[in-house]
Amino acid sequence: MAKRQYNKNLNVPNALTVLRFILIFPFIYFFLKDNYLEAFVILIISGVTDMLDGWIARKCNQFTELGQMLDPLFDKLTQAAVVICFAIKDPILIPLLAIFIVKETLMVAGAVNLISRNKKKPTGSKWYGKVATVLFYCSFGAIVGLKWIWHYESLPLSITLLSITAAFMIYAFVRYAKIYFTILHSDDPKYELDIREVMDKKK
CATH number for the 12-199 domain, one of 1.25.40, 1.20.120, 3.40.50, 2.60.40? Predict the structure, then answer.
């Protein structure tokens, strides 16, 4: 009897990545309805899934090319939703929103260019990207928790947290840009991309 094959993309890390995308919608709903405690809890859960998916993938050897593409994409969508919601409520966050929009727009455009025009794999998340994401969740979690749940506001603290986050976002962008140009000009077969193979990866 032939051994049944299954799609390697159907694993726990990828499920957590998809969950992080789904959580964007209740976060937006609760935040704009001024239900900050619920929004804060969802943000924490989203951050935890972001840490867990990579840890489980490494621990259980469940890395997939699809997961490596979806993980940074859903990180960006989550962060975009959070920054826009916060900027609507507090104009102090608009400069960070501008930095975020420029950085992520360029990164998404680069990934689309690699995939659609050059048929190459964009890079997966790196440690500096993950650190930037962790700082993002910590900074915004602290601000929303202190200001809108415990009613404590410190402008110097907010500026410090946002400045550190923005600085590391810029640093991560520079590192990713170097990788982008390396992949773009490389003839190494390891960067070649077959979308059908990625979506229908069998074991």
Answer: 1.20.120
